[in-house]
Amino acid sequence: MTLGVLAGYRHLGFGAEILKYVIMKARENKLTCIGLHVHTENHTALKFYTCKGFSVLGKVDEYYRKITPNSAFILELQL
Questions:
Q1: What was the pLDDT predicted at 1?
Q2: What is d(CA 35, CA 77) in angstroms, rounded to the nearest whole number?
Q3: pLDDT digit string (tens) for 23-42?
Q4: Where are the beta strands (DSSP E) in the chain?
Q5: What are the C-alpha distances in Å from 50 to residues 23, 41, 45, 65, 69?
């Protein structure tokens, strides 16, 4: 699944509300963590998720096929 907010609607709280809902549903379903990948050049997304409590666990090279650089950070939120 991909989570994103169109450029014209960013910084209005929509991403935070979507993430809040996902976290709520994950807890309702007794999940213990949420994992995701963020493109290494997407500094805005990285800041967003780390401010929401996600930790960077590492980096995966050659994760993306059509994006340069093709690496992604692995993030996790413990619930």
A1: 79
A2: 6
A3: 999 999 999 999 999 999 99
A4: 33-39, 55-60, 72-78
A5: 14, 15, 9, 25, 21
List, in sequence order, every residue forming a beta bridge with 75; answer none if it has no partner: 36, 56
Q: Beta strands 55-60 and 33-39: pairing type?
A: unpaired
Query: Phi and psi of 74, rounded to 5°?
Result: -100, 125
Number of residues that this document lists for the chain: 79
Residue 3 has pLDDT above 90, yes or no: no
Q: Could you tell me if 19 and 42 are in contact, meaning their C-beta atoms sit under 8 angstroms apart?
A: no
The percent of residues in the chain predicted with pLDDT above 90, rounded, is 94
Q: Is 8 helix (H, G, I), strand (E, B) or coil?
A: helix
